Amino acid sequence: MYYEHLLSPGSIGGLYLKNRVVMPAMGVNLANTNGEATEVISRYYEERAKGGVGLIITEIARIDEEYGVGTPNQLSVTEGRHIPHLERMISSIQKYGTKVFIQLHHPGRETKSALIGGKQIVAPSEVMCKVTGEMPRALTTEECESLVKKFIKGAVIAKTAGADGVEIHAAHGYLLNQFLSPYTNHRTDKYGGSFHNRIRILSEIITGIKYMCGTHFPVSVRLSADEFVEGGLRLPDSVKIARTLESYGIDALNISSGIYESAITIIEPGSYAQGWKKHLASEIRKNVKIPVIAVNNIKDPETAEALLEEGVCDFIGIARGHLADPYFVHKASTGRSNEIRKCIGCLNCFAELNQGRHIKCTVNGALGREVEFSSLEKNGVGKVAAVIGGGPAGMQASLVLDKKGYQVVLFEEKDHLGGTLNVAYQAPLKDKVKAMNDGLISEIKASSVEVRLGKKASVEDVKALNPSSVFVAVGASPSIPPIPGIDKKHVLKAEDVLLGKVKPVGRVLIIGSGLTGLETAEVLAEKGHPVTVVEMQKEIGPGINRTILIDLMMRFKKFNPALLPNHKLLSISDQGVMLMNQRTSQGIFVEADTIVLALGVSPRREQVAAFRQSFNNVRVIGDANRGGRIQEAIKDGYQEAFAFTSME
Length: 648
Hints:
Protein name: 2,4-dienoyl-CoA reductase
GO molecular function, one term: iron-sulfur cluster binding
Strand content: 15-25%
Largest sheet: 8 strands, parallel, barrel
Cofactor: FMN; [4Fe-4S] cluster
Distance between the termini: 40 Å
Radius of gyration: 27 Å
InterPro entries: Aldolase_TIM, FAD/NAD-bd_sf, FAD/NAD-binding_dom, NADH:flavin_oxidoreductase, OxRdtase_FMN_N
Keywords: Flavoprotein, FMN, Iron, Iron-sulfur, Metal-binding, Oxidoreductase
Number of strands: 28
């Protein structure tokens, strides 16, 4: 398919863009602690520029060192000393024909005092963010005026460093969004009260940037068109804001949605459909004449093309899609869109940032480590590499080994590749996991990897290849604890339930509330089974990303399931199970017709041991090494194959 609209050139102000794809700003935590652009962050952006994106808007760049820190290692545009480092980063992007905007940012109340040396955080008014849980101090009028100058200074620094434009971040509940919204702006001075006063700070910033940087220097403003909170900005309010900002002379609007308190609408989990909020950008575009950039949870170029054709926006914002696959645009433009490594909406990228670490991606093991993985040596020529197991770890290792020039033979005992991914996408609203799996398989088909399906690889089979290396990715088996009654016929494995191999009857009791357990419970509840979920830990859903858990439980709870956290399984009978309340140590019997076990997995150690004993150069990866998520499987496959081959 040729993407006529997506790949057509466009312009923002007088700036020419080679296509309609924009990589919007995402915090990555890859700069140094002084806010300087490091080689690591430069290589991160350069890889996306090589991949063909038309415009990159950098991560949040702080304009205020005292109160404006958003992450420990974010870019900064507060001092002249930042210019040389920023210039090198920008040049590394522009050499591929990709344009660069620096996003100017202040978090306001959406930060933590720990990031600013223990000082009280600041905001337009004393309105606490329910997510950060810290009461801000209201800025004085003089401080607001000073912040205007800091935003302008940041733009001047960005232009001096060679940026093609800047974006003012007035979305997602950050400081400037806080001024715009009556939900967070209760001021009585010139920066609060009326619509004109609430937008005043943006007016002063835009006017100042245009004066200092020139009218032809592009300025974009990012807006949350709907805050999705009671008392906050709604679409009609944002249409008025957009038209007013256009009158101030900005060159583009970048439309998103939500604030921290409605964060699921900023960074959607995998259950959300592509284009679910297209009405926001569409309505704003009808009311302005300047270009509209919009994010819409885009995972594939087909959807992006359709939104452009429909007239939803002028430029498509593809954010996490570029974390998952930096070559998204290149693959789309060269007829290889089926090989795009798809984002699955797991939110691991932002979970990593919330832990203070640099950004990572479940489906891209090289994200944030582009320098480390910058050169794959072609040192496998004439050598055979055997990979045992065609799940995500095995497929990823095979692809890396193939790029190294190895003759890769991939064994998979089933008649199809994918391993546990084939189980994962059986759960509700997991179409993106299937798309990711299909993409991996397409990558394998496009490579030189020889795939042998439908036969369990024996040591003898592998010895016949005389391999220089063996990667064991045989996965894991569901954990079955030695509990009385565990072998009864009405005791089933969650994996078998999801795959449709077995059919529960009557009242179902799920043991284990990890992601597999809860997804299995949701499947069965949708089919009409009364469901009880038992969990040993103190809370349901231990280890699940908070946003993912909230999203799942919002759907699941409508079936009125019984939830029993802090209960241990003691025994199973024909009529039900005996549990122990771990808080009171009291026993409790729960009646059930079917018991479903979702207690994690155990590596297939016997198979692993057989290969370890028979070969010298063995690497054990994925669940065969330790039970984990897709993230660990992809990471293992990528880095173990890379490290091993580099030592050959």
